[in-house]
Amino acid sequence: MKRITVSILKNTLLWLALLPPGIVSAQQSLHQEDCGQIHFRVNQATIDSSYLSNNAQIVQMRQLFTKLLSEQNVTVDSICIASTTSPEGSPSFNTLLAKRRIAFLKRFIMEEFPVIDPSLIRTATAVEQWTSLRELAAADPGLPFREEVLAIVSSTDSDTEKSRRLKALDNGRVYIYIARYMLPPLRSMNRCKVYYRINTIPSDTVADNGLAHTPPIENIAPKDTLPDRHPVEEFMPSPLTLNTDRMFLVKSNLAYLSAAVANIGIEYPLAKHWSLDLPVIYSPYTISRNYKLRLLAFQPEIRYWKDRALKGHYLGMHLHTAWFNVATDSKNRYQDRDGNTPLWGAGLAYGYSLPLKGNWGIDFGIGAGYTRIVYDTFVNEPNGQKYATDTRNYWGITRVGITLTYRINLKTGEQ
Predict the structure, then answer these.
(1) The pLDDT of residue 306 is above 60
(2) How far apart are CA 79 and CA 71, in angstroms?
(3) pLDDT tops 80 at residue 350
(4) Which residues of 257-293 are buried (b: 16+ CB within 10 A; e: fewer)?
(5) Is the pLDDT of residue 138 over 90?
(6) Contact by Cβ (8 Å): 121, 109
(7) Which pairs with CB-CB distance under 8 Å and at least 24 residues apart come from 159-164?
(8) Residue 344 and residue 323: Cα distance in Å, rounded?
(9) CA 183 to CA 325: how far, in whole Å?
(10) ∠ CA 18-19-25, rounded to 5°
(11) Angle formed by the axes of helices 173-181 and 146-153, to 10°?
(12) How far is 50 from 40, CA to CA, in rounded Å?
């Protein structure tokens, strides 16, 4: 609680520092609007409208300025831009990067709305967000070596030493997780606020602000370029990479293994909240004349994850099909009709994925749905006679899983 309070206080002081003289003492007469938050790619100071929520933020910013500048009884007092960077790279590089981002956003506003007086735009930087990173780490139960990460980011070490220690954890695997899930929002903090007054004088005495033509964002380029440096990659241990988009899981269902049914599967993330699970179940065993469990089954499942793919709670929708030859007593043996009519069906599932140490994890899941089974019944003896063919429409449990998982990275072969 103390850390959160300190963080809020720091952010408040940053915004107060941006206010022009006289504003703090005249808060009652001022109104303020949040212009939005622009996200930046790593080491970049140009706005990519396709990155994260930038397109929506740009639309919000344009709508706000268009509204304020078209109101004849509104006077803009100041536009305040605050910039930060994520805890990557050297402090000197991050300071330069924050300044470049502020300069680009200021230039973007000026080119969109030339009528705005440049002296109204005030800027400030608060470079590295170790406090924010600590709060994200504390709130993420899936972060590997979380206690070690919290100890590092809370230490009194220099920024360079903190970065070095983070990137050394578990041979760089912990930093890959941090870089993928935690650093992107921390690279974003070009926040913009506009302060304005609503005039009480008659509208016919106020000059029309007018609006200039809005150029497309693609035509706006920064006047300066950043140094040709990539401080994140400098500290990454070879051959690991920050690109984990091609990560997938290899898995086996312990519940099936306990019944001597071999199975293996893979799960691949399709998007931020989506993944595809592809298990194969195979049992060739004849345990005894009275007990036989031969089957080949497939049960693909598409999953939607509440937080992000392969982490936490998920809902799934699966299909299933299986060829089978089963006997459980001395009387009957059951087989899919003519040996070529597999059962089929579909169902819904719920589950939770829990990370273990390193690349290991465990997945708990259960599903229910519909299965159509067309099967022959034989006398359970060698060359036993078929004496019935039946159809069953089953509603109930269709999937049970206590599944051990292991993460692999396709691009690097990292395991």
Answers:
(1) yes
(2) 17
(3) yes
(4) eeeebebebebbbeeeeebebebebebeeeeeeeebb
(5) no
(6) yes
(7) 159/87, 159/90, 159/91, 159/128, 159/130, 160/90, 160/91, 162/87, 162/130, 163/87, 163/88, 163/89, 163/235, 164/235
(8) 9
(9) 52
(10) 150
(11) 70
(12) 11
Work out the average pLDDT over 367-385: 89
The single-letter code of the amino acid at 287 is I
All domains in the chain, ordered by first residue: 30-197 (3.30.1330.60), 247-409 (2.40.160.20)
- Confidence band (pLDDT; 50, 70, 90) for 373? very high
Tokens of 287: 């345990």
CA atoms within 13 A of residue 311's CA, in its CB half-sphere: 15
**Secondary element (H or E) of residue 61:** helix 54-70
Tell me the average pLDDT across 401-405.
93
The pLDDT, as a whole number, for residue 227 is: 35
Read off the DSSP letter of residue 322.
E
Rounded Cα gap, residues 391 and 376, in angstroms: 9
Smallest Cα–Cα separation from 273: which of 317, 314, 228? 314
pTM of the model: 0.45
Q: At what angle do helices 159-168 and 146-153 cross, to 10 degrees?
A: 170
Number of helices (H), then strands (E), in the chain: 10, 14
Q: Which of 43-47, 276-280, 309-313 has the weakest average pLDDT?
A: 43-47
